[in-house]
Design brief:
By secondary structure, the chain is of the alpha/beta class. The longest helix has 31 residues. It has a four-stranded parallel sheet with strand order 6-5-7-8, with helices on both faces. Strands 1-4 form a two-stranded antiparallel ribbon. Strands 2-3 form a two-stranded antiparallel sheet. The chain is elongated and about 90 Å long. It contains 18 helices and eight strands. The structure holds protoporphyrin IX containing FE (HEM) and iron/sulfur cluster (2 copies).
Amino acid sequence: MQAVKRIGRYAFERFESLFDTIFGVQHNPLYHLGALGWFFYWIVAVSGIYLYIFFDTGVHQAYESVEYLTYTQWYAGGIARSLHRYASDALIIVMLLHLLREFMMDRLRGPRWFSWVIGIAILWLVFACGITGYWIVWDKLAQYVAIASSEWLDSLPLFGQSIARNFLHDSTLSGRFFSLMVFIHIAVPLILLFILWVHIQRMTQADVNPPKALALSVFAALLVLSLIYPAESQGPADLSRVTSSVGLDWFYMAVYPLIDLFSGLTVWAMAGLATVLLFILPWIPRKKTSLAVVDLENCNGCSRCALDCPFSAIAMRPRSDGSPFAQEAVVLSSKCVGCGICVGACPTATPFRRHSALIAGIELSDHPVMQLRQQVMQTSEGLTGSTRILIFNCATGPDLGALRDNATAVLTLSCIGQLPPPFLDFIITRGFAEGVLLTGCREGDCHYRLGSRWSKQRIARERDPYLRERVPRERLEIFWAGVDQSSELSSRLRAFRQRLAQLDPVRAKGRPPDPTEAAAENA
Ligand code: HEM
Ligand code: SF4
Ligand code: SF4
């Protein structure tokens, strides 16, 4: 399974690089698939409300009212109908790509199962919205969909009466049943909206709005498509005739040819099996996560960790240990994915503190800050030359083993956001290296959602904890590299080294932190 994901991830990243070149990193649609899904949902909802104003819900009047909208009122109703249809199709495309991408990027295991499992419910609901939508137009395609769907439903021993019986003849067609379909077509999108909201409940600052320029260009493309190729019906339904050929909307109806080929129960079994398979994917294989742990003695209740956690896994609660601080951080272990971004946010995670006291307010259980400081100091001892570089990368980023040499060391973190900015200060001002290179997942697409964004903002002094002014920025380099960008990363490293060689030498390394200085640094 992990091998499939590795190949899939590489393939996605190749396309992402290409799209970065075409659209720019900020507007690359592959980084905003979920947000585009929301955007298409809203287009469908708004155009649907407009259509409903003129739509006649009677079975014998529905077709005529849609014809009126399409031709007589082409400038508004016709465009709304086309936008409604094309945005629904686009929703399927981005939803399936989003599903595939989250799987290939392995963003579904551990506590992330939640969004995945809710996503499966979304999948079913989106299809239910689309199918009932085609049904209520009551043209030839609707007739085909109505008969095929009800025969498929009849194969389940759930309903007392046959649903397909409704469609034997015009005289058996029940207006009430048709109104039920219209009701379902309105109720299911409302349920979908609620489920979409639940889908992002475990994420802080979920990306639900695509960048303005991307949204505008996508909307313009849908509008142009609506004008040059307006959505039309396929002739009125006529139950006295068997529909010989209809044009299917493959985005919603790809499963229908299977209903014609196999028995209804077989197709239910296939759909059920596919759903169960999707359902168990987050646990194949199981993921062991190292949890964040709060040390109350060192927590001053500043809430930075809670603000920076991308997965809403930290709650601020009233103090429980009698200390004068009002609040304390509490990790909600069922939501914690072990990214360590909270550690990078904690003001007490500073390597300048005395050796014995280096326990931060919040720590990753398998990689405490004291160990990180130890690693920095030991690694630095093994480096030689006048342009020693420490690279920090993420466990989910590309493998950087090939970059290691006498003057270059690589320290791997869970996420680059795990690195507290005072470490950069410590390394450079104490002379443990001449330069530090930060890298991780590709630009605009952090595996843990917000790690690279927060790191950039902390270094730029836009987000607490700030990197101190005294740290010379020319000794820092950032390059977010995807798995297909190893050669670019090597070139960046070479250029960085040349730049460092031009700078004045740094202070000799290795001065161990002393308690008096530590007190001043921490103040
Ligand atoms: C219309 C359909 C959908 C919409 C609009 C949608 C929207 C979103 C949004 C906005 C995010 C947050 C992205 C971020 O800020 O990082 C997200 C994340 C996610 N979605 Fe969806 N989604 C849809 C369908 C699905 C489906 C069908 C699945 C899979 C079965 C799925 C699985 C996930 C997963 C695993 C995450 C990531 C959670 C994480 O990073 O921990 N989504 N989705
Ligand atoms: S950032 Fe550190 S000090 Fe602040 S609330 Fe979180 S654990 Fe406590
Ligand atoms: S490690 Fe910290 S930031 Fe990451 S999910 Fe757990 S609590 Fe949140």
